[in-house]
Amino acid sequence: MKLFPISSVAMRALAAGVTLPLVLLSTAAQAESEPQWRSGQYLYDNVCGHCHAPEVNVGPSLGGRGLPEAYIKAIVRNGFNAMPAFPASYVDDESIAKVTEYIATLPLVEQP
Ligand code: HEC
Q1: Can you tell me which atom of ligand 1 is nearest the CA of 80?
Q2: Tens digits of per-residue pLDDT, 97-109?
Q3: Number of domains in the chain
Q4: Do residues 68 and 18 both lie within one domain?
Q5: CB burial of residue 44 (10 Å; 0-12, 13-18, 19+)
Q6: Which of 16, 22, 40, 57 is within CB 3.0–4.6 Å of 102 for a Cys-Cys bond?
C-alpha cells in the first residue's frame, strides 16, 4: 500500500512552489549589489518600466522610437528632471546596451 498517493508531477510542482520564491528573492538581492542585469528585459521590467511602461505613464513611453544608446546612456547616467540618475554601479554600460536593444523591440505608443 502506498502511504502517500501523490504523483511525481505533483511532487515536482510542490517542490517548485517552495523553491521558486527563494530563487526570486536571491536574484533580487543580487540585483542590488551587483551591476549586472540578466537581460535588457529584466532591467526594463524591474526598473525603467516602473515609470516608462505606457500603462504607468510617469515617464514617456520609450518603445519604437529608435532612441540611440548614447542618448539613453546620457539620460540614465545624468537623470533628467523627475528621472533619477543611475550610476554604473547600479546599471552598468553593458546593461544600458541591452536595455536599448530591448526598448527597440517594444511597440511605439503615441502619448498625448
Ligand atoms: C522614477 C521613474 C523613472 C525611472 C525608474 C526611469 N525613468 Fe526614464 N524618465 C522618467 C521621467 C519622468 C522622464 C521624463 C523627464 C522629462 O521629460 O522631464 C524620463 C525620461 C527618460 C528618457 C528620455 C525620454 C524622451 O522622451 O526623450 C529616457 C531615454 C529614459 N528616461 C530612459 C530610462 C531608462 C533606460 C530607465 C531604466 C534604466 C529609466 N529611464 C528609468 C522617469 C523614470
Answers
A1: 15
A2: 999 999 999 999 9
A3: 2
A4: no
A5: buried
A6: 40
Is residue 2 situated within a structural domain? no
Residue 71 placed within a domain: yes
Q: How far is the CA of 75 from the centre of ligand 1 (A)?
A: 7
What are 30-63's pLDDT values in tens digits?
555 555 799 999 999 999 999 999 999 999 999 9
85 part of a folded domain: yes
85 catalytic, yes or no? Answer: no
User: Do residue 19 and residue 72 come from a single domain?
Assistant: no
pTM of structure:
0.77
User: Is the CB of 98 within 6 Å of ligand 1?
Assistant: no
Catalytic, 82? Answer yes
The rounded distance, in Å, linking the Cα atoms of 24 and 60 is: 29
Spatial separation of the C-alpha atoms in residues 24 and 106, rounded to whole Å: 25
Q: Which of 83, 88, 97, 104 is catalytic?
A: 83
Could you give phi then psi for residue 80, rounded to 5 degrees? -160, 105
